[in-house]
Structure formats: C-alpha cells, structure tokens
Amino acid sequence: MIFGHISQPAPCRLPAAIEKALDFLRTTDFRQLEPGVVEIDGRKIFAQILDLTTRPRQQNRPEVHRRYLDIQFLAWGEEKIGVAIDTGRNVISESLLEERDIIFFQQMENESVIEMTPGSYAIFFPQDVHRPACNKIKEHPIRKIVVKVAISELN
C-alpha cells in the first residue's frame, strides 16, 4: 500500500501506469463529472466516480482484487479505510473474481486504519486487503474516485 496526498510529488519513482492515473487525479475537476466510469487508457486504466455515504466499519466487507490495483482518492468528505496484508487465512464471504475482480472477506486479520481527507489517496495492491467507506465519526456523504490499473501494466 502507498498512502499520499495528491498535492505532493510521488514519494519515489512509480510505474508509468500509476503516474498516469495520479496525473488524471491531479488534473480532473471532479465537480464537473457525474458518477460513472471514465476510461483513461481503455480497460488498462479507468476510473470509477462514486458518490457514497460512509457506514459503520462492521457493515463494510473487506475486499481484495487480483487483476487490478486500486487507487482510492477522496475528492470530498471524510472516511476511514481499514487495511491489512492478505495472510491467506481470511474467510471468503463472496468471490466475484471472474465477473468483477473482487473477493470479499468476512473479516480481516491485523486490520489497521487510515483516515482519508480530501486530496488523499491510497494505492492498494493485490496483497492489500482493504475496507473502504467507513465512518470517521458518523455517516458522511463522500465522493471518491477509484482508479483501476491493470497489474499487467506495471512492467
């Protein structure tokens, strides 16, 4: 996992596909876009613009992805995201790997929490279990952008 703020330069040299995704986040006015999918580079890199309301942590299932990494960017609002390394011991509650590249777990081991504020982003790789859209204090409307980057593009 990599955590940062869009106003700061990348902490190190990142793969070109991730830089392309971060550049999209830096240069796009998300107030002008409706929720939905925006292609950045076909199905290799695309963004999901989501308007959500955060929920109590226990109501959100931990998840992982295998073919894409997630760059979760908070445009406005506040949220917490639970995160842990996938130990392989988490019990699967639902696998939609073929249809949607997502596996949901019942719980996750060794969960830590990061607090997202507007402009912050977290990059979740296939080994990073994450539980997004959790309340910071109470339910809160948020706009988040999830940029999906195909793992095959990281060479």
Describe this structure in words.
- The chain has 155 residues and is mainly beta.
- It contains two helices and twelve strands; from the N terminus they run βαββββββαβββββ.
- It has a single domain (2-154), classed as Sandwich (Jelly Rolls).
- It is 10% helix and 47% strand.
- Strands 1-10-5-12-3-2 form a six-stranded antiparallel sheet, with helices on one face. It has a three-stranded antiparallel sheet with strand order 4-8-7. The chain has a three-stranded antiparallel sheet with strand order 9-6-11, with no helix packed on it.
- Strand 2 (36-41) and strand 3 form a beta hairpin.
- The model has no long low-confidence stretch (mean pLDDT 96).
Runs in which pLDDT lies below 50 for 5 or more consecutive residues are none
Kindly provide the radius of gyration, computed on alpha-carbon positions and rounded to a whole number of angstroms: 15 Å
| Sheet with most strands: strand arrangement | 1-10-5-12-3-2
**CATH top-level class:** Mainly Beta
Number of strands: 12
Q: What is the multimeric organization of the chains shown? A: single chain
Distance between the termini: 18 Å
* Fourth CATH level, the homologous superfamily: YhcH/YjgK/YiaL
Q: What proportion of the residues form beta strands (DSSP E)?
A: over 45%
In CATH, the topology is named: Jelly Rolls
SSE string, helices as H and strands as E: EHEEEEEEHEEEEE
Shape estimate = globular
Q: Compute the number of helices.
A: 2
User: Given the helix and strand composition, which structural class is it?
Assistant: mainly beta
Helix content: 10-25%
The domain tally reads: 1
Q: Any idea what the CATH architecture is? A: Sandwich
Average pLDDT number? 96
**What does the largest sheet look like?**
6 strands, antiparallel
